Amino acid sequence: MNCKILHESNRRMRVRMAQKRMSVKEADLLQYYLEGFDFIRKAVVYERTCDVAIYYKDNTRDAVINKLKKFDYNNPKLLESMPSTSGRQITRDFQEKMVGMLMFTGVRNMFFPNIINNIYTIVKAAPYIYKGLKCLFKLKFEVDLLDALSIGISIAQGNFSTAGSLMLLLGVGNELEDWTHKKSVDDLARSMSLNVDKVWLVTDDGEVSVPISQIQSGDIIRVHTGNVVPVDGEMVSGEAMLNQASLTGESVPVEKRTGSRVYAGTVVEEGECLLKVTVTTGQSRYDKIVSMIEESEKLKSNTENMANRLADRLVPYSLLATGLTYLFTRNVTRALSVLMVDFSCALKLSMPLAVLSAMREAGNSKITVKGGKFMEAIANADTIVFDKTGTLTYACPKVQRIIGIDGDDENQLLKIAACLEEHYPHSIANAVVKEAKDRKIRHKEMHSEVQYVVAHGIASKIEGDKVVIGSYHFVIEDEKAQLSEDAKKKLSELDHRYSHLFMAIAGRLAAIIEIADPLRAEAKDVLKKLKALGIKKTVMMTGDNIYTAEAIAKEVGVDKFYAEVLPEDKASYVEKEKAKGRTVIMIGDGINDSPALSAADCGIAISEGAAIAREIADVCISADDLNDLVRLKELSNKLTRRVHSNFRFIMGFNGSLIGLGILGILAPGTSSLLHNLSTVGISLSSMTNLLPEN
């Protein structure tokens, strides 16, 4: 699409689209399209002027311009993936409601006779008084009772204008609360809905990885160990143990066989299966994320829960203060001024909004947080446990060399290894597959059913011969692979700076694959920053040999390291640290990290890791840069400070209003106005970013 660059500065440009008008839907489409690219950090569309401000990463200006040129409002794939709900439309609807309410009130007061206005006020007050009476009959001292009393007393006094003003303020406040919550949820959902899930589609030419949006009813897909079932379907081959906690809440795996129904969102813990897709429609990704967010709001932090409990407990004291004010002053106006101030609205609105806003801000940095309590855990954490491979080291390690035993052809050995490893989402497996691709080695399926042994390796059969690939412990010790003299010689000459995969064919060690697993450039600096932010103890745990682990641990600067550990060892360590009173964060990316991720106060999964790790984890971060961890810790720390600051302000400001009301300085209407304005103000403040944009 044609456009004109109006202004440019460092990694920012303002562009005018070549159109006279822009609808809300078109503005949403353009923003959704642009923010779907990794190199675009943020896009702000101004539909009234047809402009868009684009913030992009270094050296990507040409890519931004190219994507703008390719943009098309009628792109069917874009239209299909676009969320049905619009934050922009939410704001527009709110604005129209506000204008309508204020205009109607102005016209009614100016042109309607007093008798009509009074009748209207009484009718309008009926729902408020009904809610208050329900609270009274149930002996629940809640905000609805305070509202009913203030409106009812005003009407009983014949002060219909005060009652009308109070209801107008309450109505505006309710609409503002509704808008701020919907907008926060929408912003968060949008920041999380841009990732495209992929699945393994079984075709005549083998298995191919395709976006889930391309899957149709009747297609056959393969779901491997550790993967999440992407759609509803019927198992047509295989056996598997499925974790159905997302559906039933029960974490004990359920056995599924041929003919069994399986459902989207469940996780394959053991085995693998072929599924015939039966349902591809249903909720959009956006809708599912909104549901997840609404569910995550139940995972409130201790501070949020405390604020909610306090808000409810303060209502009886507000009633008592009102009664005492009237008792000592015999002034209804002063009593009403006290009655119009409550702590509940501000406490119950600003706290969750602050959390939702922080989760949205994290989402903008490609960090998915599944509940407020996990951000609190990160803020309070004093111990952090790292997996090594793909976490402290680069997510894309490289094959250094392939060591063939007894003269076996290394390309043929690589072909077999890649054929097995491509089914399992782990950084080392990805390295083997990539090396085969770089060497232009094609590897069609030539094996039988693949069995994944957690923390050990893979076993299968090729042309009737058993093939195993994995750790030294798995291949040499467990599988008892035979070692020729050449194998023994090459084992003794291994460079322990590297990780190693061992592959045996027909009971004989056939190859050693040397993996260069270099430390992330930013890892050492990230650990220093985390310690400065409150982390007292850093630990690295890996299944690698002690020589490799020691070298990496020394280079990165962790306090402790453990080598040759099993999944249960990681989980056990986390539990022991928690038993000592420590708040523990676990960071990993593989299937073998899942038990520890689940055991930690906050489990953080690297987003390019295994699906089961992402499903179990409380937080998912981008694997591109470990500085995301620092940003998450900073964000969590500042969220905690904001929540505490909000609490102090609400208590102090509303307490001052009550005091001024008792002294007769503030009228009920003024008291209510200031109370509502402060609630709106602190709520809007809670929706602002905690950290500067990077």
What are its keywords?
Gyrase A, domain 2; Calcium-transporting ATPase, cytoplasmic transduction domain A; 24 strands; 25 helices; 694 residues; seven-stranded mixed β-sheet; 5 domains; 50% helix
Description of the structure:
- With 694 residues, the protein is of the alpha+beta class.
- The protein folds into five domains: 3-82, RNA polymerase, RBP11-like subunit (Gyrase A, domain 2, 2-Layer Sandwich); 91-190 and 297-354 and 638-686, no CATH class; 198-288, Calcium-transporting ATPase, cytoplasmic transduction domain A (Distorted Sandwich), CATH 2.70.150.10; 368-393 and 520-621, Rossmann fold (3-Layer(aba) Sandwich); 398-516, Calcium-transporting ATPase, cytoplasmic domain N (3-Layer(aba) Sandwich).
- The protein is 50% helix and 20% strand.
- The protein is built from 25 helices and 24 strands.
- Helix 7 packs across helix 9 (285-296), helix 10 packs parallel to helix 24 and helix 12 runs antiparallel to helix 24.
- The longest helix has 36 residues, at 627-662.
Structural class determined from secondary elements: alpha+beta
Strand runs, count? 24
- Report the biggest beta sheet as strand number plus sense, adding barrel if it closes: 7 strands, antiparallel
Q: Helical proportion?
A: 40-55%
Q: On the 0-100 scale, what is the average pLDDT?
A: 81
Q: CA-to-CA gap between the ends?
A: 29 Å
Number of separate structural domains: 5
